[in-house]
Amino acid sequence: MTDTVTLPNSLRSQPDANGHFGAFGGRYVAETLMPLILELEKVYKEAKADPAFDAEFAELLRSYVGRPNPLYYAERLTEALRAKAPAGKGAKIYLKREELNHTGAHKINNCIGQALLARRMGKKKVIAETGAGQHGVATATVAALFGMECKIFMGAKDVERQKPNVFRMKLLGAEVIPVHSGSSTLKDSMNDALRYWVSNVHDTFYIIGTAAGPHPYPELVRDFQSIIGKETRAQIMEAEGRLPDLLIAPVGGGSNAIGLFHPFLDDPDVAMIGVEAAGEGLDKKHAASLAGGKSGILHGNRTYLLQDEDGQITEAHSISAGLDYPGIGPEHSWLHEIGRVKYMPIKDDEALESFQTLSRLEGIIPALESAHAVAAAEQVAPTLDADQIIVVNLSGRGDKDIFTVADALGVEM
Amino acid sequence: MTDRLSARFAACKAQGRAALITFVTAGDPDVASTPAILDALVAGGADIIELGMPFTDPMADGPAIELANLRSLGSGTKTKDIFALAADFRARHADTPIVLMGYANPMLIRGADWFADQCKAAGVDGVICVDIPPEEDAEIGPALRAAGVHLVRLATPTSDAARLPAVLNGASGFLYYVSVAGVTGKQSAAQASIEIAVAKLKAATDLPVAVGFGVRGPEQAAAIGRIADGVVVGSAIVDIIGSHGDAAAPFVQDFVAKLRDALSIRETAA
Q1: Residue A181 predicted with pLDDT over 50
Q2: Number of domains in chain B
Q3: Which residues lie across from B39 on neighbouring strands?
Q4: Mean pLDDT across chain B, nearest whole number?
Q5: Would residue B270 count as lying in a domain?
Q6: What strand order describes the sheet that includes A125-130?
Q7: Which of A92, A98, A99, A107 is catalytic?
Q8: Which residues on A lie below 8 Å from B139 (Cβ)?
Q9: Is residue B266 included in any domain, yes or no?
Q10: What is the extent of the structural domain holding B30?
Q11: pLDDT the model gives residue A413
Q12: How far is B33 from chain A (nearest CA, A)?
């Protein structure tokens, strides 16, 4: 974290002092929360400058999360795509294996970091929002690890759809609070977590699950997730002796993507694609905030949002619960506007296809979120030369999604 | 500009009582019912109208006002309807101030200048934007000031002495003291803690100080009215609209009259 340098002409020096990434980010919260947000910013600055904080974070990532996880050359996927590509085409595809982390996704990296901050601030209670339950499980896990009381806000519809994760959270000692307001999904669970937080600011820390929300959350979540990109950089240098040509990661709020991208932002020869969930198609129900939304203010930050002409938030849709959110982290909005990262929509059916392809070719069942990135790689790799290198962030494992996928494929389990 | 807000606070002060500020959500239960409800607020004795702009994601509101937001949006309320309701109200009630209260996204979607111009044209006197703290003032403050519309700021139990100057810098119209660290309408603060907070705020600003969040009925309104310049009642009125729908106006008027009577007791007893 201490290597987030502030250099002129660097794309890695955002946000500014007020938490803005260009025109995005900021702190759009109720006045009640402002003193706490400002305190968090101060504590985070101190923690960043404290080698002991960094050392404890690194040690927990090693001994508890199981990092570093491998960068794996997906040879069978690469060869299968080359077989369909023109001669000399078909880039080499590596997978960054975040799904091998404890709890099965990248989410835990951020939860460990935020729990350390909560402890530093003297807070003994943590709350979190969750959609499919992955961030909820990761938060409940670190709460158990740190001996903290934990409440997870989860849309009532998601509680019904994700029973195994609800039970996991309960096993880990967390209280799961079903949210019945609004559309009873992820955005509503975030509303209710904010409502609870504003009523309990004195003793409660809010562990936000993605690189969004009021400053300093987008910055600190990015910093905690940047371990993904730092490891990738070292691993690809060891394997290939050079940097990759292209990074691909799925984007809901976008924490795994920004974690992979950020350490490479100042390397002009490394291209990047963030993959948005196009649901049933951009002209139908989808969750692609950049492709189908515009700038607005929600959940503490200015960013691209799915909304109508009056600024009312519209419901997102994706087969992947983790991408089913009408907004995106503010740094992605900025990287999109300056053109540093390209964002590409992938539909439900394309993700479903890649979910099966990767399972069969590599023996890795990806999360539906990650399957969106695999689908993008399948489309892009055949257009690149065979000596080019792509790294795909395999952000999570797909065990949680088998019921959804079976249902979509019409399979009775 | 004729400043209806300061004129109204001054008039209440001259009567020896706090101003009664009543909140309803525009378009709840539908746009057609709202004029009669607004008239009922005035007929019941409300001094200032807070008109809520509905939003799909009202994060600072408790269940009562959240449901009002959903009822309003569900019946098809649009931003243009809200400004039409305000302009229409202004034509019927020349002197009663209106303050729009809501969230940043619906206010700013067409740009702050557009919003400020609409407010001015509709005779809106002030704006409370729940999720724009002083740090983000540039989003809305300059446009409202240029249009002569008050930006009413919120102070809370977490606004300590170090924080308060930032809140007051750029605040106008009145200062809204959110008496509980929480959402609207859920719980009430202890009278003693409100008294201490209001005294501190009044020492720090010449603006009138109004107290809201968790003020449910006449007795509590009267107690707060003895120390504050204004008392805001929202969720309790919104609950009545929730129960009676498009027939709510007479019930609203009856309840508001009780609030107003309670605030006026000091005057008659003196």
Answers
A1: yes
A2: 1
A3: none
A4: 95
A5: no
A6: A175-179, A149-155, A125-130, A204-206
A7: A107
A8: 297
A9: no
A10: 4-261
A11: 82
A12: 21
